[in-house]
Amino acid sequence: MRPHDFGIHPPLFYDLSRLANTMLNSSLKQLSALLAAKKISSVELTGEFLKRVKALNPDYNAFITVDEKMSLAQAQAADAMIASGQARPLTGIPIAQKDIFCTKGWLTTCGSKMLSNFVSPYDAGVIERFNAVGAVNIGKTNMDEFAMGSSNETSFYGPVKNPWDITAVPGGSSGGSACAVAARMAPAATGTDTGGSIRQPAALCGISGIKPTYGLVSRYGMIAFASSLDQGGPMAKSAEDLALMLNVMAGFDTRDSTSLQRASEDYARDLAKPLQGLRIGLPKEYFVEGMSADVARAVEAAIGEYRKLGAETVEVSLPNTKLSIPVYYVLAPAEASSNLSRFDGVRYGHRAPEYIDLNDMYQKSRAQGFGAEVKRRILIGTYVLSHGYYDAYYIQAQKLRRLIAQDFAAAFAQCDIIMGPTTPTTAFALGEKSGNPVQMYLSDTYTIATNLAGLPGMSIPAGFGDNNRPVGLHIIGNYFAEAQMLNVAHQYQQVTDWHMRMPDKLTA
Amino acid sequence: MQWEIVIGLEVHTQLSTRSKIFSGAPTAFGAAPNSQACAVDIALPGVLPVLNRGAVERAIKFGLAVGAKINSPSIFARKNYFYPDLPKGYQISQYELPVVAGGSVKIQIGGDGNECEKTIRLTRAHLEEDAGKSLHEDFQGMTGIDLNRAGTPLLEIVSEPDMRSSAEAVAFAKTLHSLVRWIDICDGNMQEGSFRCDANVSVRPLGSDKLGTRCEIKNLNSFRFLEKAIDYEAKRQIEILEDGGTIRQETRLYDSDKDETRTMRSKEDAQDYRYFPDPDLLPLEISADWIEEIRASTPELPMSRRYRFMARDAASYVAMLQEHLDIDFEADLHDWVQQTHREIIAPDTQKTYALSAYDAAMLTADKNTADYFEKVINDVGSANTKLCANWMTGEVSGRLHKEALDIAQCPVSPAQLAGLLLCISDGTVSGKTAKDVFDAMWRGECDGNADIIIETKGLKQISDAGEIEQLIDGILAANPQQVADYRNGKEKAFNSLVGQAMKATKGKANPAQVNELLKKKLGNL
Predict the structure, then answer these.
(1) Does any CB of chain B come closer than 8 Å to the CB of residue A108?
(2) Among all residues of chain B, which has the CA nearest to that of A223?
(3) DSSP structure string for A24-58
(4) Rounded CA gap, B241 and B228, in Å?
(5) What is the domain partition of chain B in residue ranges?
(6) Rounded CA gap, B303 and A465, in Å?
(7) Contact B89, B123 (CB under 8 A)
């Protein structure tokens, strides 16, 4: 079902009180406890969130597809699991799924007209893992088309609005997921992050999100944008919730050759660790230019909190980080140009209604099916892989990618964790950058380097800027340091309440 | 002007894995369209390739068999182009760092006493996936797409431009064809497309060392087409050059109905495939242990087996290997050929047969034939080597050819043939009668048991001297005219008498004994 299909505008005075009062800010742990104690059933919980989606989505456009029937059937199955004592963490909890994850029986569009008719016949690895624990899919969230964008404005299904300010972008590409969690339309959501697509919208919407180490979460069934950079991860209200989500999402998948075969771990195990002696690296390059004053103030205040928690700070240097954006905009489009070749109108997806021959069918189907930003990146990618340009662009970018990774290795010799701003500014206005791709690309300036290096990165709420829009604190860990990063974030969230804030107008 | 033809081949061999190279779907030929294409093969959004270990193993096996270098790491790359039967819009292949680099193959060329060997160098062999099939007929102006073949593992073997005639190219293709079947990495079925060649053909003035402009002829799926296409193409190029024209580099198709090649696309239309390393597949690391494991499981190779069949003894076998395969046993103890044949070249071996070059080549044309031969020898003993070779290259091979059967499908088993050969060598049946016995065995009479067939049909050769003498006496008495003719110098009369003796015994009389006794009697009369 499309958003407009169920989009009969809600009654003006929809009663949000029940959910609002009891559960809007409940953690996943608290919701699990309520379900386990049979204070509420999954069907009821799911129903309540569905009502809220119905009420808010027409304004915020966070979901592309909602299917009450399918969600409630899953909730019913979850209730049976709970009743028979087979409950596992997240059983019965509604989770919003980014529309990039193939979900059996669900429209899976990747935010594109190209896939606007694609009902997936199979489940992505990540979806399978949520299904296995009995989590409920509450809907497929809106996103930039094929995850290419930083504002959610490239979606075929229209832009998502920022719950803190309906005139601002939610960030992207996982803007729908960020909005859904920020507006409390779902307790948690999935996202994917190729250059910042989890962290940047998390920052702009005032929620928490983590992009794990490359290879930790299966890419099977996650529609590829740039294979060597794409990584799925959770988006939620708190670090604790992220840990529980990551426990479900992470794990080896034989169907993904880049998936890492390692022992499973409990990402919540270190949450309570004190931060005494933690060495926080502050890259000097992050704090010189580009960052707006209000973001700088909030980040410095957050670092002040960490000092109070016993952490110390050291200045580190990431001299090649400034090359991240040019390197990324060679490599990501190169891979994308090839990854998106399968969308040719032959076997599934959009096919032009009229054409005269094969080439005409290809050209028309792709011209009609892809939006401007996707076309731009296919063109860039095709160009940099072309004969005579490959060495100058692709090979050169790969070399620089290695240098960028080496910067981090050197920095982590001096510190345990790296911090800085997630984004240079708070959420910008809808339409403000959509006409200027380079300005748009620069909004990922702090996040892209971690994707190039394959490192884990996260964003947590750290206050508000001058316009009362959220500021995100960026935390970069070493490879496989997710448990430590979540610990670092959790301790901060024990002494601050930024992550518990929600837009006034959305509370009951 | 005299022209030299220069040919290089690219051979696509379909590897005999049960499942596809990057998915778990089956590779069996001939299933209903699109019934053997899974989510990965049809390139649904989000699916990813996972490399089939069996395909890599077969590539390594080939590399070892041609003395090539096994690259580790080896890299998979995407070859990007649009076509409806290429579901991903790119083919996963290898570009830089193929799994097999270099190597060479020896071919036999010439004939009629001028046989000699020639080494054809290999450039590389790389793994890749096959595309699906576009079916342009039966769809009323539309095109049908069958993706069963999509993702089938291929090893593309690329030679250096070392061949100088269509005959050499065919010899090379046949040698490769035999080799890939011998080491069991490809079923070699050319009708089903398991083995198909592209030929790069150019010509140049004899004596020139500069390569001419080449044309590539695509998809030649029989040795005969390969030969004809090259001959046609070389002739075409020579005619153009002799008329003062120039050759355009292009890809051409061979039309077997018209026996001609024609332009498919010129170099100017050549696509830019935008190769780059596939980010979905990590560099392929091949451990030395794995290579050793495969080495140990690879059978004795056709070339060395042929030399062993020709050798008189172990020493001459080793000498042949050293001479022809350029193996220095002292220097290179780890050389694979030596490893595989350590047992055979041990001094106490008896497994050499002193066969002629012709017999040895025939009997090692494929592994099953060679195995069959050695099984028979195992039963009949080395004293009957020549007899066995004659039967296999004569009666057995002729019959198989006539009925279009493979040696593996031969209705007469090695043990059964051995039974018959023993009856020949001990004089139980004559060579001529043996052919009738063989016919009966072929039809499966008496469970193919030669002894029982001879017994029940009464085909046993009469070798009893007394019995034959009695018979001859009778014939001489009944044919005074012939006896007289013989005496008068008519040699033909003698043959007539022999014929009568054979006829009277329905061919069972031992012909040598009949001859001998008849001569004796006629001399004494």
Answers:
(1) yes
(2) B46
(3) TT--HHHHHHHHHTTSS-HHHHHHHHHHHHHHHHH
(4) 20
(5) 3-272, 298-457, 465-524
(6) 79
(7) no
Confidence band of A9 (pLDDT split at 50, 70, 90): very low
pLDDT value of residue B1: 83
Q: Which residue, A7, A49, A239, A257, is CA-closest to A135? A: A49
- CA A215, A216, A219, A220 dihedral sign is positive
Question: What's the rounded Cα separation, in Å, for the pair A477 and A416?
Answer: 7
- Percent of chain A exceeding pLDDT 70 equals 95
What token pair was written down for B209?
A: 């060392």
| Contact partners, residue A12, CB within 8 Å, separation at least 6 | none
Looking at residue B181, its pLDDT comes to 94
Cα–Cα separations (whole angstroms), residue B436 to A172, B89, B440, B454, B512: 85, 61, 6, 10, 19
| More confident of the two residues A424 and A21 | A424
Contact criterion met (CB below 8 Å) for A62 and A185: yes
pLDDT tens per residue across span A393-409: 999 999 999 999 999 99
Q: What are phi and psi for residue B479, nearest 5 degrees?
A: -130, 60
Q: What is the pLDDT of residues B438-462, one digit of tens each?
A: 999 999 888 888 889 988 888 888 7
Which active-site residues of A does the annotation give? 98, 173, 197
The distance of Cα B461 from the centroid of its chain, to the nearest Å, equals 38
Chain A residues with CB under 8 Å of B135 CB are none
CATH domain B465-524 topology: Arc Repressor Mutant, subunit A (1.10.10)
C-alpha to C-alpha distance for A37 and A474, rounded to whole angstroms: 36
Q: What is the dihedral of CA B233, B236, B240, B243, to 10 degrees?
A: 150
Dist. CA A69–CA A49, nearest whole Å: 14
Strands A188-193 and A231-236, by their bridges, are antiparallel
- Both tokens of B141, joined, read 């102006």
Burial of B496 (0-12, 13-18, 19+ CB in 10 A): middle
Domains recognised in chain A with CATH numbers: 18-274+486-506 (3.90.1300.10)
Distance from CA of B72 to the nearest CA of A (A): 17
Helix (H) or strand (E) holding A81: helix A68-83
Mean pLDDT value of segment A466-488: 97
Phi-psi category of B260—alpha, beta or left, where left has phi over 0 and alpha has psi -120 to 50?
beta
**What pTM value is reported for the model?**
0.89
What is the residue type of A253?
Answer: D
B135 touches A at CB < 8 Å:
no
**Largest Cα span, chain A:** 70
Are B352 and B373 spatial neighbours (Cβ–Cβ below 8 Å)?
no
Q: So what's the ipTM on this one? A: 0.94
Q: Which of A136-140, A273-277, B179-183, B264-268 has the lowest mean pLDDT?
A: B264-268
CB contact under 8 A, A341 and B82: yes
Tell me the chain B residues in contact with residue A255 when contact means C-beta distances shorter than 8 Å.
Answer: 47-48, 50
DSSP A298: H
Q: What confidence score (pLDDT) does residue B283 get?
A: 96
pLDDT at B525 (0 to 100): 58
Contacts of B277 (CB under 8 A, 6+ apart): B75, B76, B77, B78, B283
Q: Tell me if B98 sits within 8 A of B74, measured CB to CB.
A: yes
- A222: nearest Cα among A334, A95, A128, A325: A128
Mutate to test the interface with B, among A127, A143, A253, A347 (most CBs of B within 10 A): A347
pLDDT in tens, A232-264: 999 999 999 999 999 999 999 999 999 999 999
- Quote the tokens at residue B431: 């060579």
Is the Cβ pair B90, A122 closer than 8 Å? no
Tokens representing residue A174 in the block: 């996982």
Closest Cα to residue B74, out of B227, B273, B291, B345? B291
A223 vs B: CB within 8 A: yes
